[in-house]
Amino acid sequence: MKFSATVSTAPDQIAVAPGYLQEEWLDSGRRYFRYEMDAPILNFWSILSADYTVKRDEWRPASGGEPVAIEIFYHDAHEYNVDKMIQAIKESLDYFTVEFSPYQHRQVRILEFPQYASFAQAFPNTIPYSESIGFIADASAEEDIDFVFYVTAHEVAHQWWAHQVIGANVQGATLMSESLSQYSSLMVMERHYGPQKMPKFLQYELNGYLRGRGGETIEELPLLLNEGQQYIRYQKASLVFFALKEYIGEAALNEALRDYIAEVAFQEPPYTISTELYEHLKRATPERFQYLLADMFEKITLYDNRTISATVRERDDGKFELTLELQARKLYADGKGNETEAEQLDDWIEVGAYVEREVEGEKVEEPIYLELHRFDGSESTVTLVLDERPLEAGIDPRNLLIDRAPRDNRRKVEDAG
Length: 417
Hints:
It is a single chain. The chain has nine helices and 20 strands. The protein is α+β, with helices and mostly antiparallel strands. The strands form six sheets. It has a four-stranded mixed β-sheet with strand order 6-7-8-9. Strand 13 and strand 14 (339-341) form a beta hairpin. The chain is elongated and about 90 Å long. The mean pLDDT is 96.
């Protein structure tokens, strides 16, 4: 639809609607704003008005081109995270415009609203954002998950996944909107904070998915057919897309998404559906991982992987021989939670060994071995020769696969008797 709006408000307030400000005036003690979009948008928009302070910045594409205006509208006492939001917007635009497609607007705006609700929502170039999860949230603790940065990146991602790519109102629609926004924000997070910070966030997502499916009252659906269950479209999707990125590579996954968005962006009805996205993912996935794609998107798949023992001995040549006794199990669940063990296990699963190093006064875990191994039975013995003595080792040590007891995937390495 073509969009324009004239909004009247109190004389000390700023009213904001999607689009670009065309005119502002005072009349009979009221303040007026007229906004207009320069291209058609969905019939999906918001109007906010408040006594705002506005912080302005801009993002410039690395490849050149016109800058994008950034505006944060906020209560003047709530400036704590404004700079963080601006940084997240810039880094999101950096990533999404290179990896997916150009940004379609000339501005990005975030607007604070009171904590009578705790969410953020992306309208065309305009993002209302609750004070409770963004503007007054304490994001100062380094050990905590930075939800302000993450939520901002997620909402910016919706300018691609929901406003460029619009899913038909059928099963699986939120795979294209929420799930791809989850993946996109994870990539911005990983670039900003580094891969060492991702396991904590993914553990948070795993806990949310397992709690959600445990409280399901109707039926859990596969990700490909999700009908809006939040624990599937958000939490499970984070786990699935991050794992897929690790298995097939970020470049391959992003190329598939880039091709998909080029094919379906700014469609008129009929809109795209999840199986069309899935075809692009299948083409990007090597044959040996096609089973994994089906497990993650078409089925409800759970793993019970564990490290039974991890022992090491120093060899005469100064190297270290690590012996791991590992268990790999895969189960399929139906929508009611009934589980059946996979008839045949033929899966590629990471095996890893880790040491601890001190970097700038902080102890940091570092892998000295991390490779995919093929598991075709329940229990396996893996022997590795390493240059250093590992501290911990195990199967699926980064918890890429959905496992209800992920802590037993790794063990402290003991000296061989």
